[in-house]
Known about the structure:
Number of strands: 11
Structural class: mainly beta
Largest sheet: 6 strands, antiparallel, barrel
Radius of gyration: 18 Å
Shape: globular
Amino acid sequence: MTDQDDGPKPRVGDTLDYKTAWSERRGGVYLKDIAVGTFLRIRTADHTAILAKWSEDDYSIWGHPLFYPKPIPIRVKGSMWGGFGIALKDHFIGIGMRLVFTRLDRPLDIRPVGDGEYMADFNGITTAEILGIEELETTTA
């Protein structure tokens, strides 16, 4: 039995570029393209949240019944495909992806987990899969 070359294999980066382009066509947005003062309704598989942009790096989010029912300040990291740690697309909110952000309303929590080892909780949140993104009129947010 011999190995046969069926042609070039797709690279992970190529697949992610394809998926990001797919997400852009379905309404995904880059944070740099959102004007200051904009409110976005982000519908995920388990809740609907409102994201507000206050400056180039300052955002707040609210709408999850348990984790952020009222507005909290956040730093948006971007979106990722699949579960934790799989290919983060910086500064992008994508359909079919999961929004990743850090809460800024809580101090960094560092605790010992073993002999001389520590774990840092960066107050990170990864949402359920994003199903829709819609810009809101300022008067409806």
